Each structure stands twice: as structure tokens, then as C-alpha cells.
């Protein structure tokens, strides 16, 4: 129930936006970049997980999965580079810092995230059952999202990438599911169920948080726009008249007790 | 004490680790994300630094962010207000970004890396840059000049380094910024990608500085060395940067679009002439700053840092004509390199009795991530591999060579390098068209052994350190023009990499053997990476470039891939 609700919640806000996203050249590039980054992150984490699990079969599967993620990252990155070359004049450096903000925090307002809550080093902290459960749920979600992107994307080359990745996702869902089944058979059913419940719950919370962040973002910008034209208007008029002074400036004396702790002085 | 420096949300992002005053690891996040100018939180670079030292995030005593976020926010707010009412479209977005995210660096770093917020510290942006130069230098006392885009408010800083202390003396504030002006001119000339500024001095070599009189009016230099930008020529782009304004385009004509071809035929070199004029004004302005600094801090050594120190022509002019006897530049002068500076600064503040160890090895980056499934031939003996490379090069083939820990900074110092025989001038064109696919006017660099470098190039006495730890533009002698025409620029200069046997014995041996075969230990060398991306990171990246290009031979550590 949680699983379906969280996917629906995520997709509800996505579906309407997907076509607009893929028809905008800049957002298309940034989304592909964002996917590339998430997939590469996934590759790193899976490599780390493969190093810490004892079961050789699971280790091998995680290594293969990591290789897939790295390949996906390269596919997305190459496609983004191709599109960037076609729209060079649109990708001005002024966009970079904002793009970096979006990507780094994974709280994008206009781009899409692939695996969402996929956090580094979880295998160490959670153990292999919880990790694989989390992976299983994440891959199901990614497959659902990529299927939507596959349907919405407006060019054949990018669609072919999604098709290839969707095919790999089947393997990822299947091998993680098989391990969970095997552990259930081996008498760890309770542990597996609890891990799946936690993973789905945390994904629902993540989806809810992202939905909230997007809504708050839109609302915040409206409030700031109103502030700009009311409260800040006189300050703006004064600042506009001021000419930026040149010349050497003496260094301001810091008043902070421990300057390294201060975020200002 | 273990200190990790972090830089992000500026013109680059990276991490640098200092343990007991020793620089252990440093990495630019762009190497991992493969996006030049990457400025997101450097998660992968941090992970690499920790793994390199065998540490976890909790083992690190202090995490140091390379700027003071609240002071930078003050500048952003003032910039938005002074652009009223044009800024109405950007104000909400900018403030939302700051209020929702960048103001909370402390908690952000803490939650991202799972550490206590109490361990997070902050240095000033230019202090981090200054530390990355001075504390890595061999000087006990030195003058420090930092020139970059913009940190909090400062765009240019004069400082004095002495023992374990850096004293910031004076600064010039935003929007008067040579770094931002350089970027604006690079964009005007059609180099809009991050790092496009490095193309300007290369294009300048084709032009005549016929606009220099007008340009001096736009960048006015005072008798005390400070400079001011004319806001009609350089206007705000509302994101804290500058763009070439109406007064500029009125005098120098329309901007070149990135997709337009670069005109280099006689009579059509307007953009090259603009580049030459701006480069000349930039050099004059920097020299005025250096002379003022020398008046205030008359030491032997000068440490140069900040983004503008990546302009190799600028550094060469200071080395040739500046008043300082010795120069030092950190391997990475940009914001990514400032992460290591932030850690070094914090080390010297928290342990004032123990100065950080000078840097004699610029190879602080990651080793090559290998591929499990391989098709290449394994050659275990290094000498046999070198022989194989020398034979291929002498036969006119191109070679990609990837090995060991990678260099800090954007330029190749031999660890992720593309090599070719420079004896035939057309080699450069072949490499540009079939492998790197970069602009044909951008020259390649020569690599040369340290012992024989002075046979081929005029090396200013002050450039002893820069030629070993990074590339610097040198005037070539006739011997170099005969032996390596493919690696010499049209103005007779070359950004040479002088290879020291102590620093990189394998590369030195390769050059020596090539010299034994051909008479000159010189090779065409350039960063091994696809166009628009940093140098290759992993064996997979290298293989991918090998497959997509006309490269003849690829050597990754002990594995050799030859084109059948």
C-alpha cells in the first residue's frame, strides 16, 4: 500500500511535468546530467557494498549491478554532451551555480531524480538484508520513473537509452527479489519483511518531502517577489543610485572570538 | 590533526586532506562527475580523500569550508539591490537558493557526511587561496597576490606570508574583478564553456593589440596599483558575474557565438585582435598590482593564486618582468584547489607552531580505477612498456598514457596524458581532428626533460618552481622550433611541462629514451580526455576514448591496448 501510494504521489507531480521537461532543451540536458550523477553515485555505493558483503553470489551480483550503473551514467552523460553541443549558446555559465545547487542537494525543482533516497554507505550501517531490500524498492521505483520518461521523451536516441536501462532494471529487480526470497526461505522472513517495510516507508517519506519542497519552493518565490516590490523597493532605489567604489580596501578587523567558527567575520 | 577542506558552490568544487600539516590528497569533483566547472557539493572528492588516508568522516578533526557564506550572501543581496528593478526576475530565485540551502553550510556538511556540526569551520575565500599557495611553497616569507572572480567581497587581495601566518593587507572589492572581466571577455569571444578563459591568451597570439587604447579606458589602473572596471563596458549579469556591456560592443563589434567559426585569416581577425588587446591590458594591470605588492612586501618570493593564475601568458609576463626573484603557484589555482588551501589555513591557525610541509609532489589525486573485464595485453615490466610507447611514438603513432595518482589541477602533468611525436607540424592538426577534437588554434604543449629544457626554451630564473609543478608559457629557442614544431604556438611560445626525474621518473625515462632515438627529448603532450571534459579518470573512460577516437595505442598502468 505504502509502495503504491508513494509511487503515485511521486508520479502525480511528475507526469504532467514530464512532457514539458523533455521539450525544453536546457532542462533536458540538466535532467540527463542529473540522471548521470545519480547513476554514478549508485555505482560507487554498489561497489562499496560489494566489498563489504560476504556472500560471493551477492558480491558478484552487486558488482554487475555497479557496472550497469556506471554504464547508465556514461550513456546519460554522453547524450547530455551531444545535446549540449547542439545547444551550446543556451548553456551559459551563469546557469551553472544554480544547476549545481539543484544537483548537489537532489532537491530539484525542475529536474528529475532517478533513485531518490539512495544514500552512500548504507550496507555498512544496515547490513545486507536491509541494504538489498532498499535496493529492491529503489529499483522498482526507478523502473516506474524511467518507464514514464521513456514514454514522454521526444527523441529516439534518448528513448533508446531509457529502453536499455529499463531492460537492466528488470535484472536488478529480479536479482534483489531473488535474494530476498532466498533469505525468507532460510528463516529470515521477519527480517526481510521489516526491511521491506522500512524501505517503502522511507521512500514514501522521501517522496512526501520532495513534494513539500517543490510546493514550498513555488510559494517561497511568490512571497519573495512580493517582498521585492514592497518592503525592498526603497532600498533598491537607494542602492541603484550608489556607484560601487573602487580602490584598495583595508581588511576589516574580525571581532569573532574564533574566526574559523564564524560564518561572517 | 586531520583536517579536510571543502570547496563548493563557486567556480569549482573539490576536497583536500591535510594530516599533521602534510597534504595527503586533493581532488577536483569535476574529475569524478566529468563536468568541467562542476560546483556541486564534492561528495565523491571527499570520499576519495578519506579513502586515500584510510579514514572515515568521523575520524576527521575539522571540516573547513573555503568561504564565509554569510559574507558572500551580503554581496549577493547588495548586488540584487543595486540592479533594481532589473533583478526582479532573479531576486526570488537567488534568495530562495540562499535561504533554502547555501546559508546552512554547517548543517548541510554535517548531515551530508554524518559528522557533528561543531566540527565545521570556515575560512575566507582569499585566505584559502593564499594558503594553497604560501603553505605549499618552499618560502619562509613571501608576498601573496590572489586574483580571481569573486569570493565574499574581495576579488583581488594583497597579502604577506611569514612562517605559519598569512596577513591579508588590502583588497579590491566586487564588482571590480579581473577574473569576472576575463570570463566576460571569454564569453564575448564565444568561449562560454567553463574554463573558456584559457583560450583567450591562445587566440591573442594570432592578433594585434590594436584596441589597447580603448581597452585601457575600460580597465583603469591607478598609480597605487589598484584597478577599476568601467561599468558601461562590463555590466552585471544579475548572477554576480559580468558581461561585456553596450560600450564594449559599440567599440569592438558583436560577440562571436560559440557555434561561429574562429576567423584567423588576415583582415578578418577582429576577435583575435580583441583577445590580444585584452590580454595586454590584463598583463599590464597584473604587473601594476605585482609592483605595488613589491613596494609593500619586498621579499624574494611571490606566491600567485586565484583563477587568473591559470592564465599561462600572464604568469610568464610576471616571471619575465616582475620584481620578484622567485615565483610559486599551487598546482590548482582555482576554487577546487582552494579546498586544500582551506585545510592548510586551518592547520596553521590551530597548530601555529608547526608549519605545513611544502609541496614537492603535485600528484595528490586518485589512482586509476581499473576494469575487471579486460581485453588489453599485460606488460608487467615498466621498461618494456616504455619501450613499446617510444617505438610507437617514433613511428608517428599517438599514445594515451594513464597511470598512477593523477595530478592536482586542470592541466596534465604526465599522468593522464596524450603523447605524440612533435617533429612534424601537421601532427597537431591530426591530434586535434582525430582525437581531442578541440579548436585548432589552441596549441599543444611540449614535455621536455629538466636537464635539457634550457637547450630548447628560455626559462626565466624566477620560474624555477612553476616549471616543475605546472605548465608555464616559455619562449622557445630555434632548437625547439626545429625539434618540436607541432608543440610550439604561432608566437614562438609554448606551455612547456618540464619533467623532473625525481618527481616523475617514468615520464623522464620515456622522454630520455625518445631523445636517444630522435635526438631531442621532446614530446607533444596534452591532457588525455574528450573535448569539453576533464582528463580521463578510469580505465573505462580511457578505453571509451580509445574506441571513439583514432588513438593508436593506449597504456593504462600495466595494460596495453593497441589498435588492430
What features would you describe in this structure?
The complex is a heterodimer of chains A (265) and B (564). Helix content of chain A is 77%, strand content 1%. Chain A is mostly helical. In chain A, helix 1 runs parallel beside helix 6, helix 1 packs across helix 7 and helix 3 packs across helix 7. The relative contact order of chain A is 0.12. About 12% of the residues of chain A have low confidence. With 564 residues, chain B is an alpha+beta fold. In chain B, 37% of the residues lie in helices and 20% in strands. A ten-stranded mixed β-sheet of chain B has the order 15-24-23-16-17-22-18-21-20-19, with helices on both faces. Chains A and B meet through helix 2, helix 3, helix 4, helix 7 and helix 8 of A and helix 2, helix 3, helix 4, helix 5 and strand 8 of B. Strand 1 of chain A pairs antiparallel with strand 8 of chain B.
Name the features.
heterodimer, A: 265 residues, mainly alpha, 8 helices, extended, B: 564 residues, alpha+beta, 10-stranded mixed sheet, 5-stranded mixed sheet, 20 helices, 37% helix, 20% strand
Q: Could you give a short description of this structure?
A:
The complex is a heterodimer of chains A (265) and B (564). Chain A has 265 residues and is mainly α.
Report the largest inter-chain contact. Answer: A-B, 60 and 84 residues
Anisotropy-based shape of chain B: globular
Overall pLDDT score of chain A: 77
Average pLDDT of chain B works out at 92
Question: Which quaternary structure do these chains form?
Answer: heterodimer
| Range of strand content of chain B | 15-25%
Order of helices and strands of chain A: HHHHHHHHE
Rg measurement of chain A, Å:
23 Å
Low confidence ranges of chain A: 89-120
Count of extended strands of chain B:
24
- What structural class do helix, strand and pairing data of chain B support? alpha+beta
**Into which percent range does the helicity of residues of chain B fall?**
25-40%
Shape label of chain A: extended
Distance between the termini of chain B: 52 Å
In whole angstroms, the N-to-C terminal distance of chain A is: 52 Å
Please mark out the parts of chain B with pLDDT under 50 across 5 or more consecutive residues, or reply none. Answer: none
